[in-house]
Amino acid sequence: MSRLGDLLHLERTRRKLTAKAVAKMAGVSEKYILEVESGTRIIQDDQARRILQKMGMEQQTDAMFTLEDIAVTVDLQTAVSPQRLAKTREVRQEKAEKADGSIWLDALKGVLQHVPVYNAVMKEVGSRLLPVSQGKIEGAPAEKVFYFMAPDNRMRGYRVQKGDLVLVIPTQSAEDGKMMLLDTPLGKQLYVIKLLPRYQLLLQSFDKQSEAEVAAMADVRVIGKCVRLEAEL
Q1: Which residues, listed in sequence order, are joined to residue 224 by a DSSP beta bridge?
Q2: 3-state SS class at 65
Q3: What per-residue confidence (pLDDT) applies to 233?
Q4: Which terminus of the chain is more solvent-facing, meaning fewer CB atoms within 10 Å of its CB: N or C?
Q5: How deeply is 82 buried, as exposed, middle or buried, from its count of CB atoms within 10 A (0-12, 13-18, 19+)?
């Protein structure tokens, strides 16, 4: 099997098209389509793109797949028959693929990116895959965003508990009413910020009860704004 052959098979079955119907649309033989999908015939990227377009997929570059395309491509458990999925895993093993689903990430290169997860001392402890749109995640350069792992329950009142991940967009400016990641003498900490007169900030946390402290804006180093929460159920 091949990456492009699997991609064509997924798109064809998702659209409930027969190999014969796709062959007619693309002006090739049914045998050609089946051989490409099985991996016994090599197909070039431009030819695969042309066939995908004939099936109804909008013409796109590798960096412009829609999120729906990503979902149907990555979700092997629901999109591929058990027999084909087993065979795909077999081939991956034989080729010593670095990680499950890597052939799909190859197909979607530029669409998904590993975003690092940092702990309270900014040591990388893992990563998460996020979709990239025009080189950005949540409107920020994809290579700049990161996840911060909450080190304690100081923000439990704001639905952030120990071990939860918050997606951080780097910024040096405090924003009123937003949860921000700050650099403090006690390490990196999460606070909800309230802007006060005379260039002061109210730093709010909430574990068992609400707590707040006032700090001069000049004394606070803002690392980034928190825009998304991921929590384990």
Answers
A1: 170, 181
A2: coil
A3: 64
A4: C
A5: exposed
